[in-house]
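Your task
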Amino acid sequence: TCGIHIHAGTSCATDNAVQGHYWNWLILQDLWTTAGGAVYVADDMGNAEGFFSLYNGFSFGKNLGHAVVVHDHNGTRIAC
């Protein structure tokens, strides 16, 4: 099981620029977790499908421009 998340940062240039998960903690808990459903599963060939719900407590417009990070099964960032 691997992860996919919208992050608070707006750049993938450095680890610090990506920042942490982007969600409105005043409205809901961090949904960018395995329990929250922000996951995908890859087969032995590396093929994968996945999706996540965009509702993170912010409007669509407030999500635009934020980094979307894909993590492998070890939590290592493999795409941004």
Remarks:
- The longest strand covers residues 2-6.
- The beta strands are 2-6, 39-42, 48-50, 68-71, 77-79.
- Residues 27 and 57 are 6 Å apart (CA to CA).
